[in-house]
Write a structure and sequence with these properties.
alpha/beta; 2,3-Dihydroxybiphenyl 1,2-Dioxygenase, domain 1; four-stranded mixed β-sheet; 2 helices
Amino acid sequence: MTFSLTSLVVDAADLASESSFWHRLLGGTITRTAAHHFLRIDGFLVIVIQHAPGQTPPRWPGGASQQLHVDLATDDAAAADERVRAAGGTRLSPAGASARVYASPAGHPFCVRPA
């Protein structure tokens, strides 16, 4: 018996903003329904953005654990920083940190680390 990871699901009050953000970072194609946006890269389902009208963005750093976050790797931290911010992300970690922490438009934290 084996498992395979099919996707990560994130809540967002604004489906269009959140799916556009991840699409601008990772590429791929978006399929939209009223309650979900599906981001596929190379034919694989990667991120499902689920409509959650009452979604409260996580706080980082904060007193409660984040439960889950995504790590991305890059070979160009400066270009990655520019791309994340241009896509609508917000930098949360201080300048000079080796792993940079950002938040998506819905407030979900993620890290960008050196490859």
